[in-house]
Fold this protein.
Amino acid sequence: MSSGATALEVDVAIVGGGMVGASLAVALAGTQRSLLLLESVPFGTDAQPSFDERTTALGNASRRIFEGLAVWPAIAAEAAAIRTIHVSEAGRFGCARLEAREQGVEAFGYVAANRRIGAALWQKLAAQGQLRLRVPAHAQEVEIGAADVRFAVAGGSGQPEPVRARLVVAADGAHSQIRAAAGIAADVEDYGQVAVVANVAADRAHQGCAFERFTREGPLAVLPLFDGRLAVIWACHPAHAAELLALGEADYLARLQRQFGWRAGRFTAASRRGSYPLKLTRAAATTGERTVLIGNAAQALHPVAGQGFNLGLRDAAMLAELLARDSAEDPGAATLLDTFSAWRARDRAGVVRFTDGLVKLFADRRPGAALLRNLGLLMFDLAPPAKSALARVSLGFGGPAPRLARGLPVRHA
Ligand SMILES: Cc1cc2nc3c(=O)[nH]c(=O)nc-3n(C[C@H](O)[C@H](O)[C@H](O)COP(=O)(O)OP(=O)(O)OC[C@H]3O[C@@H](n4cnc5c(N)ncnc54)[C@H](O)[C@@H]3O)c2cc1C
């Protein structure tokens, strides 16, 4: 590592200021921990991969976390509530409909543009005087040791800046550099699907209805947006995705209409389309020596049930809670890291199993599988306990919930 200059010493270095890393930084900003946040692509630029043109369905647990971080009002101003969820399979008879009112909640969740979420988080970060922000910047020559983590921050015009942190948090996404530096392996399973995303206008009001339609090639989700439009996330074979991306607006809308049907009205206009290859990436462990993995660095999921960010935000909320508990405690202590992985294990395993299982169940083309699925959807619609179970998943719980997700401040008074 570069020597000479005195190293900047911090308790916690967060590498990656995307959806999850920026949320963690906001959660920790009010604590006694000294903090460094590194992000390689500035917020607000077209190349920013986390706060891009996508939209995110936020569960109620995520809403509570954002309320606790005082960023919810800025997000809610441009979020659409999901009051109904409609699940169906293309070409089959069964369908299920869930009403938030029947589950005793105001909404199953809220759909917000990633850029809006980013604006709320980055505005908060900019106002945090004690936070060291390095953007655009990345970590070089990362050395993880028993006593500390050393690296050099590169990216600015000057010399790389040496840093010593007592804990490094990998929030640098599915291809995490920090995960690799910590020697933590990742298991990658390619679903052989690409999500083509776009926002579309329709001639009928959405009334807060979110649709999940399973097609032969993958799930097609249509979510309500605050401006009356709909977010379309269409998972399909890579060759089909390439075709959808190449189509003109009118042809794309006609294809979408044919596949989705008329339950949301007639589609009249579409935004620019974007695409995301879909894989399940799972780190072998969520902690290593003086290292914690959160968000996509720990697990990147298929977007089928809109769980990836919600899960990652609970990672961030739980880590913030443990780090805020006792500022005298070594933030990289093995006991703290073991507690983190133990407390996150059930939620993580449950959400990964649920999401992966849903993709595979609806991809099963064996004779009889479709019939079972449709009977399942029909019975599901008739059976309130099954509906309540799914509604609870949609609300984002499983395993011990972070204080923020329960509506409590990150720190005990
Ligand atoms: C099509 C689609 C739809 C989705 N919809 C939903 C949904 O409705 N609900 C939901 O809960 N989830 C959803 N997800 C999942 C969600 O997008 C991810 O869970 C979320 O982006 C994870 O955020 P992250 O911050 O962990 O990682 P990322 O979003 O990958 O961000 C990583 C950040 O780290 C930065 N970075 C990378 N490497 C470095 C480095 N070496 N140094 C410094 N910085 C670095 C990147 O620039 C980036 O800002 C969806 C995903 C897809 C693909």
Observations:
- The two ends are 41 Å apart (CA to CA).
- The chain has eleven helices and 20 strands.
- The pocket of flavin-adenine dinucleotide is lined by residues 15-21, 38-41, 49-50, 54, 56-57, 138-139, 171-173, 177, 195, 197, 233, 276, 295-296, 303, 306-310, 312 (CB under 6 Å).
